[in-house]
Amino acid sequence: MQVPEGPDKILHALEFTLMGFFTTRAVLLTWNLPRLWALVLGAALAGSFGAFDEIHQAFVPGRTSSVYDALADLSGGVLGALIFLTIGSLVAKKMYSDCHDKCCPGNEA
Predict the structure, then answer these.
(1) What pLDDT is recorded for position 103?
(2) SS3 content of the chain, % helix, strand, coil (to 5)
(3) Is residue 37 situated within a structural domain?
């Protein structure tokens, strides 16, 4: 089933919003980085995965690759990283009492 062009880009962005959310969370909980660098690195990891996926699709019969799909992936990754840094840290603070300082600002003991 072929998805029309407009919804295709929205679906790419939604998928990679989740990836950007979780890669930013992983970066913050793994390395001691400032929140801005975690946002950049989390979004870059999600965006680069999208770019590699588009390159991979160029070699798969029956699939097409698109720079616009890669841009939708990157924008979704940035959106997901921003969402984590705003709402995700609040949720993590409630779920984990020993939450990482960078992940949950204001949780300093």
Answers:
(1) 59
(2) 70, 0, 30
(3) yes
Tell me whether residue 103 is in a domain: no
73 belongs to a structural domain: yes
Considering the domain boundaries, does residue 100 fall inside one?
Answer: no
CB–CB of 31/42 below 8 Å? no
Torsion sign over Cα 32, 34, 39, 40: negative
Q: What is the DSSP string of 65-80?
A: --HHHHHHHHHHHHHH
Q: Tell me the residue range of the domain where 67 lies.
A: 5-95
> Are the C-beta atoms of 70 and 77 separated by less than 8 Å?
no
pLDDT (tens digit, 9 = 90+) per residue, 38-55? Answer: 999 999 999 999 999 999
User: Average of pLDDT values for 101-108?
Assistant: 54
pTM of the model: 0.78
